[in-house]
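S.,

Sequence below, as promised.
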Amino acid sequence: MGGMSRRLAEVARKVGVSEATVSRVLNEKPGVSDATRQAVLTALDVLGYERPTKLRGERARLVGLVLPELHNPIFPAFAEVIGGTLAQNGYTPVLCTQTAGGISESDYVDLLLQQQVSGVVFVGGLYAQADAAHDHYARLTDVNLPTVLVNAPVASLTFATVSCDDAAATEQAMNHLRQLGHTRIGLLLGPRDHVPSRRKLAAARAISERWGEPLDDRRIVHSLYSLEAGQSAAARLLKEGVTAIVCASDPMALGAIRAVRREGMSVPGDVSIVGYDDSALMNCIEPPLTTVRQPIEPMGRMVIELLLRQISSDSAITDELFFEPELVVRASTGPARE
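The prediction came back faster than expected:
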């Protein structure tokens, strides 16, 4: 019994109610407001205690929010919108961040299922990598857990998905550079098996065909999504003599700018750079970055709408909804110097 009373005390402290109230909730006795009952059950989940068997059918008002990393400011930005909208709807986000050598996405799924969460939102995860492990997603489908993905899953996975239109983003960036007179345009993409990068590449090939100038494979490089990886990949593009680089993320674009400067050249005087995301502070760097903005506010709100619809109706949604990106022209792009 010692463990039980300690648990009562801990939950009571967390919620700010008496131990008697916690006990009433656990034993399903009347005289507790619905809000207090929810708070007690959520506290049990948060503190990692099992709910009493009787109360297990009702899921915790927790929603897993799984992010691949926090270095790229686009992920905290999505977390802020999604977390805020969840809170407005009475749900508490549980932040699960991948760290190198840390807990895997599969482990997080197990953890969230144990916590009886009401749903899970993935913002950029293994579902977008063709060569990654996808078995753990079946565990979500098996228990019919409301799940929403942000951005482009591999074809075999059918979950509600909210994506920014990668093809449109690439066309906007390339048309902008074309209008500035650039013909030797390089592409700095994410890993080869990454679906959003595959979509960007396909769009770039299609637009190049329309221009009657098929894409030169030497002007396509794949790298990890970090500033450092972007910098070394951009250096390879500069050796091919490109006058402009379209990047698959803003941190990559910052790496590309650094690579251009390393070579003793200037942006945009010698080489124009376009980013992707329009994440925080990209208007404050020197030069302010031309980039393709993901509409994260409406995307984040749609994620929660799809999630809540599944929670209330108990039926899965499997559509992918596309949001239109917007080219934000700043000062990192300029006329081609032929």
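Residues 62-164+295-323 form a domain with the Rossmann fold fold (CATH 3.40.50.2300).

Coffee later?
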